[in-house]
Amino acid sequence: MVLIKKCLFVIVILSTLTSCQLAYLAESSYYQAELLRKRVPLKYALKHYNLSPQQRERIELTIELREFMENKLKLNTDSNFSRYVELDQPYVTYVVSAAQKNALKQHLWHFPIIGAVPYKGYFKKEKAVQEVQKLKDQDLDTNLRGVTAYSTLGWFEDPLLSSMLNMKEHQFISTLIHETVHGNLYIKGHSKFNERVASFLGRLGAETYYQNKNQIHKFKEILEKESHDELIFSQFISAEIKELKKWYKDQQSNPNLLDLRLRRFQSITQKFKDTIAPQLKTENYKGFAQKELNNASLLLMGLYLSDFSEFETVANYHQRDFQKVFTELKSIEGQENPEKALSQLVTKLTK
Residues 159, 190: contact at Cβ < 8 Å? Predict the structure, then answer.
């Protein structure tokens, strides 16, 4: 009954929106309810489901992690990840993003509760594909990707999903903490900051977990390699996005802009192959060389790949104590400009 009331409440809130948006919400609410209806307790899944050894390990690890997040990290899990759902598809949702073709400007969707967001998720791939076509018909660049996990920001009890169980152990731990952070710290209308803070705290939380288990050696080597690659790639893609923004401004009056930009995309890919790929220590970004670039895909990378140096400054100031770092970042939640507030916090701490 509580679940039904929540779903209906969301529909009532959005009743002021267009019929298309309302239809989207009603459909999403239906599939969300269906997803939650399929939940079973973790121990039931361990006993009755045909699981691989790794899937079994990840579910057992989830039981431990929930206690760790509550007792050690002091995060409110709200019963999240206490139950399991076996999906009939590889991803739980399919997320669409879009951007203008003649400028690096994201297409935004506006919703109450969460504010403006640069993506729209669908539980069924065919619906996402239809949305992509509608956006293309509006002459927008598009990007479609599958998502293994997401947070309902406390509206529902998020289950552990079969799509999450194939991750490497440290990535799985970071992801559970990442999604739990979203339910504890979220700033309406600031998707990039929300993703940055959840990503950083997810990793710091994983680091804390391994420290607590006296297994930091298990995490340190791979973390150093992944951090090395992320820094190199994020600096590369951030610089390319910055240069591309300027290029679009300079070429606005050029009638051949759309043809010329294909060469720009090709030059970005070639630069990656020649200068970035040889420096990488993991396979995490090797797929970039084969990716078909457009404004939507580049902006999506910019959303999730950012400079974490300011977060690192806050963490190091507090000797990487997760609770203290989280408290500091939580204080930004009510600020109108969280990025500026973070910079001001760093300035205060480093005086």
Answer: no
User: For tokens 């290029």, what's the residue?
Assistant: 247
Q: How far apart are CA 121 and CA 325, in angstroms?
A: 31
Task: Name the helix (H) or strand (E) containing 204.
Answer: helix 191-212
Question: How many CA atoms does the CB half-sphere of 174 hold within 13 Å?
Answer: 19
Q: Describe the crossing of helices 191-212 and 216-250 by its angle, rounded to 10 degrees.
A: 160
CA triple 108-110-116, angle to 5 deg: 65
pLDDT tens digits, one per residue of 250-293:
999 999 999 999 999 999 999 999 999 999 999 999 999 999 99
What are the tokens at 288? 């970039």
* pLDDT tens digits, one per residue of 41-97: 999 999 999 999 999 999 999 999 999 999 999 999 988 999 999 999 999 999 999
Determine the angle formed by the axes of helices 191-212 and 309-317, rounding to 10 degrees: 40
Distance, CA of 304 to chain centre = 7
What is the sign of the dihedral through the CA atoms of 252, 253, 254 and 257? positive
> b vs e for 307-328, b when ≥16 Cβ sit within 10 Å of the residue's Cβ?
ebebbbbbbebbeeebeebbeb
Report the predicted TM-score, pTM, of the whole model to 2 decimal places.
0.82
Helix axes 322-330, 191-212, angle to 10 degrees: 160
Q: What is the pLDDT of residue 30?
A: 85
Q: How far apart are CA 199 and CA 308, in angstroms?
A: 9
